[in-house]
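Summary for the steering committee. One of the milestones for this cycle was to obtain a three-dimensional model of the protein with magnesium ion bound, which we needed before selecting residues for the alanine scan. The sequence and ligand used are listed below.
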Amino acid sequence: MDKKAYDMGDIDYHWCPGCGNFLIMDILKETLTELDLKPEEIVLVTGIGQAAKMAHFTKMNFFNGLHGRSLPVAMAIKAVNPELKVIVESGDGCTYGEGGNHLIHAIRRNINVTNIIHNNMVFGLTKGQASPTSQLGYVTKMQNLGVFVEPFNPLTFAIALNASFVARAYCGDKEQTKEILKKAITHRGYAHIDVFQPCVTFNRLNTYQWFKENTYYLDDSHDPYDRVEAFRRATEKGKYPLGIFYINPKKTFEENLAAYRENDMPVYKRKRDLEKVSQKLLSFV
Ligand SMILES: Cc1ncc(C[n+]2csc(CCOP(=O)(O)OP(=O)(O)O)c2C)c(N)n1
Ligand code: SF4
Ligand SMILES: [Mg+2]
């Protein structure tokens, strides 16, 4: 596979110069190239926001949905065609704010998708309001006395829901993020990757330098199959650990669906007797 296969060619990228979204896009393209996944084998499902625009800037199947509503779309795609590799991708506001309820149930159902959250700790597209992950005391034009709500912790949240795969990365570290993404994309089941991403225009607190100085990597002594330990690491005060916190192999949503219990042929490929289906539907009226 050639990385250029995911390029849109000569297009305008509606992101600010220096935005961390460029790095995430590049890392994702390289990860997919190294995994030898063809653009036609992938569907990128996004919500609304700066992060979500990535669907317009990469060459692969995509669905750019409503704010916070990417996961139900991803679930429907997997239900109809489990053979597709579905990557969900959006911002911290879209995923943890507007889409919070969908997130709970996508994790519980264990839909076999990779969920990449560009966590810039701000609402970028709408010009810099606080998001669920903004830090305490963070001052914006809207929160002019500083944020007084404790930030949402996506990792403890996902581990508490017994998610199948939970990780955190920083887009300034290309090789490490690529390795985490490779493991997440090849993982069978819901994989949650919160990716720290500087917003150079609206977040002057959590800068490239800040992320560098305030993160470190989990080492080999961390056992990702130990849920209590994963939870403990995700609640650490001070510097933020990066890496794979938790892995919990279990049956996926698709495997649990009645349609796939005895037949793994994607539903969309199956022949339907439309007469029979409509008779059955009419019998409910
Ligand atoms: C239901 C709904 N609420 C609010 C909005 C307005 N809105 C669009 S993008 C956005 C914030 C996006 O922030 P985030 O998801 O963190 O993405 P970023 O732009 O930071 O990448 C908001 C509030 C909307 N489009 N739909
Ligand atoms: S406003 Fe922030 S998140 Fe949006 S493109 Fe600019 S730097 Fe990136
Ligand atoms: Mg954001």
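Key point for the committee: The CA atoms of residues 78 and 152 lie 28 Å apart.
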